Amino acid sequence: MTPLIITAAITGGGPPKARTPHLPCTPREIVDEAIAAWRAGAAIVHLHARLEDGTPTADPAAHRQLVARIRESGCDAILNFSCGDGGGRFGHAQRLALIEQGAEMVSFTASSYNSGARLYDNNPAYLSQACARMQAVGVVPEIEVLEPGFLERIARLVSTGELKAPLYCLLGFGIPGAMPADAALLPILRARLPPGALWGVACAGDHATHLTLQMMAFANGGHVRCGMEDHPWLHAGELARSNAQLVAQWVTTASAWGRPVATPAEARQLLGIEACAAALRAQALA
């Protein structure tokens, strides 16, 4: 079986402690939780930077500091920065700048959608700029699919060479204003993924639906994203005390069913991160 890539989404960009008192909100807490999630078995750690008071920030220095502090511990997890709009706080230039702050992977929401009362603006020109910037610095996109129509935009970007295989598509369910948390959508989305694409599931919403969609991904060769950004519950009615607990739950599940858990090195190979880095090194030497 394809090794299971576990992503830990540590903190998100929402209000501090709004859903759980255990959400890491200071830079030190985020670093500690990232390292603990890696030790528990996460191959990818998805990060949003925050200030000391918990406010989300797009400051490049804050992102570089997260990378430095996590790497100082010996952690070799794939670090994945959010390049989202921070709830409408961050403009395109700020988001593009985060591609170059030391992460090997960044989130790439593949189109625009209405998020509450505002537009989450990922227009075609911005997407092309992001693709070019990622290719230039050897960063791999975590391609977020939040609506079925996003897959048509992804196909266009593949056809123009702006997105290159291997592709990793994260199917995101339950985000207000986007695709509902409906398990009936999963096989439809899978059938329309680019040929050969790896895929995973992230799901907000009630515990039963979250568990159903994640287990469907696990059982069908997909990958999983857990963590307090998406779903802070360990069991129905029981909040996880840490992101590491949520990662360990998936490690235990994978062990019980005989599916290996990907190490960071194995995940880099599956996602094409090693090949991308090698190509850039060769280009630099040419």
Q: Could you characterize the architecture of this molecule?
A:
It is a single chain. The protein is α/β, with parallel strands linked by helices and 286 residues long. The protein has one domain (6-285): TIM Barrel. Helices cover 40% and strands 17% of the residues. It has ten helices and twelve strands. It has helices at residues 27-40, 60-72, 92-97, 124-137, 150-159, 185-191, 207-219, 243-257, 264-271, 273-285, and strands at residues 6-9, 44-47, 78-81, 105-109, 113-115, 118-120, 140-145, 168-173, 198-203, 223-226, 233-235, 238-239. Strands 1-2-3-4-7-8-9-10 form an eight-stranded parallel barrel, surrounded by seven helices. It has a two-stranded antiparallel sheet with strand order 5-6. Helix 1 (27-40) packs across helix 2 (60-72) and helix 1 runs parallel beside helix 8 (243-257). It starts with 5 loop residues before the first strand and ends with a helix. The model has no long low-confidence stretch (mean pLDDT 96).
